[in-house]
Amino acid sequence: APARFAGAGGHGAARAGHGPALIDDGTPTPEHASFTWPRFARVLGVFLAIWALALGALAWRYGWQGTLTQMGWFFTKAALMTFGGAYAVLPYVNQGAVEHFHWLTAPQMIDGLALGETTPGPLIMVVAFVGFVGGWTHAVLGAGSELASGVAAAALVTLFTFLPSFLFILLGGPFVESTHGNLKFTAPLTAITAAVVGVIVNLAVFFASHVLWPAGLQGRFDWPSALIGLAAAVALFRFKAGVIPVILCCGLAGMAITLLR
């Protein structure tokens, strides 16, 4: 059923309305963006060297089981899962950072996710929050250096999360136009998209369970949070309200309920 796996063409409507462009679909690929094996090898070698030197230095200084070393290794693996966006990787980050390494607690992770949703920029920057809290909590640079530890861990986590992303861009860029519309490439991407939807549902369940049952599923149900969430859903889907005003109103409502308690 090839039609099921053809490219979605999400920009088709926008493409129909624009005028002549300086760089368009018919523009020949510039030489520097054309795929060559020597360039592929150079880019890959440079990025692998940067990654190996950074992780090797951490292992030499703090040992393989050191918090900073484990952060570098864990977020390297997390970066390889960012295919599909932040919602695809954040469940994995939550599982590792909260349940396995105990760098932060589940309520702190919820705080980080909430900050990521309410501030401009990519949601994946939640990893910097995770690194900061983990570095502060474990005082990775020594007792009395919590702030410096948090800043260092946040910078480290950001490096190891985004380094593979830049590698994928520079390595994969030359393939983009050459594989456009090729069913051998669009079919796996379509399947991955379907899987990512399931991962996003997983994150939604994580959100809901920790917000509606703050003390665990056996604890008290948080009716005010449920009503705020329901009101937000109605405003967004029934009345087509803007996302930012809805988030602002929900935040103010939550603050008011917290103060009244």
Q: In sequence order, what are the helices and strands, one letter per element?
A: HHHHHHHHHH
Percentage of residues in helical conformation = over 70%
Total number of strands: 0
Structural class by SSE content: mainly alpha
- As a whole number of angstroms, the C-alpha radius of gyration is 22 Å
Uncertain runs with pLDDT below 50, 5 residues or more? 10-14
Shape: globular
Task: Output mean pLDDT.
Answer: 85
Bin the strand percentage: under 5%
Distance between the termini: 57 Å
User: Largest sheet, if any?
Assistant: none
Question: How many distinct helices?
Answer: 10
What does it look like?
It is a single chain. This protein is an all-alpha fold. Among the domains are: 36-176, no CATH class; 222-261. It is 70% helix and 0% strand. It has 10 helices and no strands. It has helices at 12-17, 37-62, 67-79, 86-100, 106-118, 126-138, 146-178, 183-212, 223-238, 243-260. Helix 3 packs antiparallel against helix 4, helix 3 (67-79) runs parallel beside helix 7 (146-178) and helix 6 (126-138) runs antiparallel to helix 7. The longest helix has 33 residues, at 146-178. It is globular, with a radius of gyration of 22 Å. Residues 10-14 have low confidence and may be disordered.
Short description:
The chain is mainly alpha-helical and 261 residues long.
Features:
single chain; mainly alpha; 10 helices
Q: Secondary structure elements and their pairing?
A:
Elements: H1 12-17, H2 37-62, H3 67-79, H4 86-100, H5 106-118, H6 126-138, H7 146-178, H8 183-212, H9 223-238, H10 243-260
Helix pairs in contact: 2-3, 2-7, 3-4, 3-6, 3-7, 4-8, 5-6, 6-7, 9-10
